[in-house]
Amino acid sequence: MPDPQNPRVAVYLDFDNIVMSWYDRVHGRNAYARDRQRIADDPSEPEVAARLKDATIDVGAIIDYAASFGTLVLTRAYADWSSPVNAVYRSQLVARAVDLVQLFPAAAYAKNGADIRLAVDTVEDMFRLPDLTHVVIVAGDSDYVPLAQRCKRLGRIVVGVGVAGSTAKSLAAACDQFDAYDTLPGVQLPEEPEKKADAAPVRRKRATVDAAGDLLARALRLEQERTDDEWVHLSAVKNLIKRMDPSFSEKALGHRSFSDFVGAHPKVAELDESTNIVRVRLVADR
Q1: pTM (2 d.p.)
Q2: What is the reported pLDDT for 108?
């Protein structure tokens, strides 16, 4: 049985998915689909090579993030490793003891090719290795929702990693914790292309801030009702928010810490940092 005091982690990477999603994140929506044929024809062509380099995945950042949860007992990456866009990563992955699972082109590009193989292996590993405590799924496809749910039913903690903007909300919700690849330590964010000045980005930012504030208010109400205390521990509120929305990240919202995030919502919450244990409460008019 899994032992929470001795966390052991299995990592599964849908590598095609993460490479394509990050390429789109760097170069724009559907960029990989537009460039796929050029990449296949000649990945060394200067313009193509430059675009691939700009969209390079930091393999170490993913593996190090997974290792933060406990001892890595197995790590598998699924892709067509004969494809040039994936082949450049082989030496890095092997150096980090990643098992490369070959998906031949017919399976690699067919719908659900990697999904099914990865899901079957994951379920098999959970029964073969009953001491696994964490399952880390690096992907963004909603087809992995049943797998995440099954892992949780079998008593494992499920952690998801996906590229911001390319991950299904249902997958993030199905995990115990979900973090965007973009926010992992060491990952260099792509430069945002210049946009015409208009009100749309401002409206989107305001909507995101409002949603985050509402989430904080709901979490505070629930924690106050659970403890029957006006002031509740800040760490407990963060843990509750992560359970309510596994994709929540204060850093993705532009804050260095959770306390900074709470402090940015003075109309929602009030902080008490007078002791070693930081506490927070819902403002009276909420």
Answers
A1: 0.79
A2: 46
